[in-house]
Amino acid sequence: MRGAIIEDHQLDADGRPAGGTTTGRGFLISWQDGPLAVDGVRREPTGAFVEDVIAAAVGRLQHYQTTKFRCRENDLAITKLQEALDWLETRTRYRAARGVEGTHEV
After folding, report:
1. Can you say whether residue 36 is alpha, beta or left, with left for phi > 0 and alpha for psi between -120 and 50 degrees?
2. Tens digit of pLDDT for each residue in 53-86?
3. HSE-CB of 41 using CA atoms within 13 angstroms
4. Which of 13, 38, 57, 91 minimizes the number of CB atoms within 10 Å of its CB?
5. CA separation (Å) from 94 to 41, 98, 99, 101?
6. pTM value?
7. How many C-beta atoms lie closer than 10 Å to residue 93's C-beta?
8. What is the pLDDT of residue 28?
9. In this structure, are residues 59 and 44 in contact, taking their beta carbons and an 8 Å threshold?
10. How many C-beta neighbours within 10 Å does residue 31 have?
11. CB atoms < 10 A from the CB of 18, how many?
């Protein structure tokens, strides 16, 4: 059974993602606040990316697969999460090719 999730997603004055938090039973995620590149200078991340959280879930499910809780459903969930990561990585490659990766440019 899923626990309650509390989301506080922030926007900047221009309506662009600007960090926030997501909390639930046993976790607190502080999301990346703003772009990684400011005035052409790359800065350190300030929080988690969706890819980080998905990768953490994949790692946990892979761990289950090394125990007596190994099952087909875990394998299927891993496959779908890895597919999600692939699509997000594709998005990043497209943005990099257009020279807008790490910025708020669309």
Report:
1. alpha
2. 999 999 999 999 999 999 999 999 999 999 999 9
3. 3
4. 13
5. 20, 6, 9, 8
6. 0.88
7. 11
8. 98
9. no
10. 22
11. 18
